[in-house]
Specification:
- With 434 residues, the chain is α/β, with parallel strands linked by helices.
- The chain is built from 17 helices and 13 strands.
- It has a four-stranded mixed β-sheet, sandwiched between helices. It has a four-stranded antiparallel β-sheet with strand order 6-9-11-7, with helices on both faces.
- Helix 5 packs parallel to helix 11 and helix 5 packs across helix 14.
Length: 434
């Protein structure tokens, strides 16, 4: 069946067979299926959805579209973590070195920014010289030696996903459950980890806006992973406001460094400890989550997590002077405060809009060819439940283009909802699923 016929079939809501999916993915990777036809298929899937069987078949076809990483030379149970994406989500920057500091082998494949969310690889490249293109030998050696390596997805590892990931970003086809599940799990299955912890975001700043949808996505990914013989767990976490206070690549690196020194925002610390405890137990480095949490918290406050982070940055070519003195990281030429127009309490923050404002400033990609400005973004000063006085700063814009500041200020002020009555702070950890 031709790609045209497959697009029409899916547009009508019919089910694609395993052979049809395999043929489609092979054709896209091989070049016989062009971007415009695959874009049409992605949009058809967004409107019509996929069955569980279609999703599993798509995941396996993407995982098998290139090489699979063999991590058998790494000692111990290799643990990876993946987030479904959020605003200000710098979790991996803290989590990976923290769990590595207690002896967990972290062999992590990470991605770049997608839509209004940031990517771990982009953030790490705020460090001058930092390399995410590692040979398989170097990747394995680093995990054996210092318990951590973070690499970008290579062209040969799930290449179908790499092509689709970039295409979905610029065609409005990111927020579809089966496409998100297959993208995440194809990379994870091809990456060779023994155990996978998923951070599934829910709320305004997430791709899944409701907790019900987030749990359904988690179940889908847990099922795919377990069928493939992996240890799996998922955490449903709040994204109805940015995680921490910093949104933007270098700004988030600074906040991550503070957290690794035990001086970070409490919501980021709580999420890292929750995810890290699951990873530590899966790796066999603690008997239960309470013991794991204590080990991790100790290393967050005694300097071991930060020392592991420095070793990791240096091992991948980064300038550790920028970690020791974060003022050496990329900094914007313009800062502009956004004052509150009212006194009261922060009742709501339009989180996706905060991500889009960072995108407007240059902190994300609007097209596949876009170049990211690592210095720009938004630094929040007030979050949900906080009291605020009229004229007090809600957030600070970090920008390099003066013409973008006025629009960003207006949109940022409108992103805050202020009430006269006290507002509750949201619960961060919604659910843990295994």
């Amino acid at each position: 069946m031709s790609m045209y016929d497959l697009i029409v079939k899916k547009k009508r809501g019919e089910t694609l067979t395993k052979d049809e999916i395999n043929e489609m993915i092979a054709g896209y990777v091989g070049g016989s299926v062009p971007d415009y036809q695959m874009s049409a298929m992605m949009m058809a899937i967004c409107f019509q959805g996929m069955t569980e069987e279609e999703t599993v078949n798509l995941t396996l076809a993407m995982a098998e579209s290139g090489e699979r990483l063999d991590l058998s030379a790494i000692k111990g149970i290799k643990v990876d973590k993946h987030s479904t994406g959020g605003v200000g989500d710098k979790t991996s920057l803290v989590l990976a070195p923290l769990v590595a500091s207690v002896g967990v082998p972290v062999a992590k494949m990470s991605g770049r920014g997608l839509g209004h969310t940031g990517g771990t690889i982009d953030k790490l490249e705020s460090f001058s010289g930092f390399r995410t293109s590692l040979s398989e030998e170097e990747f394995i050696n680093n995990v054996n030696r210092i318990h951590i390596a973070v690499a970008g997805q290579t062209a040969n590892l799930a290449p179908a996903d790499k092509k689709l990931y970039a295409l979905r970003d610029v065609t409005g086809t990111v927020d579809q459950m089966s496409l998100i599940a297959s993208s995440i799990m194809s990379k994870k299955l091809a990456s060779g980890a023994d155990a996978i912890v998923l951070d599934v975001k829910t709320g305004d700043g997430a791709f899944m806006k409701s907790q019900e949808d987030s749990e359904a996505l988690a179940r889908e990914m847990l099922s795919i992973g377990q069928l493939a013989g992996r240890q799996m767990a998922a955490v449903i976490s709040d994204m109805d406001q940015p995680l921490g206070y910093a949104v933007g690549n270098a700004l988030e690196i600074k906040e991550a460094v503070d957290t690794l020194k035990g001086k970070g925002p409490k919501d980021l610390e709580e999420l890292v400890l929750t995810l890290g405890a699951l990873m530590t137990v899966m790796a066999g480095e603690a008997k239960d989550e309470d013991e794991a949490r204590l080990l991790l918290k100790n290393n967050l406050y005694n300097g071991k997590a930060y020392d592991t982070f420095l070793t990791f940055i240096e091992a991948q070519g980064g300038d550790i002077r920028q970690a020791e003195d974060t003022s050496l990281l990329p900094e914007a030429s313009i800062t502009a405060e956004v004052p509150s127009e009212y006194s009261g309490y922060i009742a709501d923050i339009a989180t996706e809009e905060i991500g889009k404002i960072s995108l407007l400033l240059g902190g994300g990609r609007e097209t596949k060819e876009s170049k990211i400005d690592l210095a720009v973004g938004v630094a929040l000063k007030k979050k949900k439940g906080d009291a605020v006085r009229k004229g007090e700063t809600l957030a600070v814009i970090h920008a390099n283009h003066p013409e973008k500041v006025a629009a960003a200020r207006k949109r940022l002020a409108a992103a805050y909802t202020i009430s006269k009555e006290p507002a509750e702070k949201p619960k961060l950890i919604k659910k843990i699923m295994k």
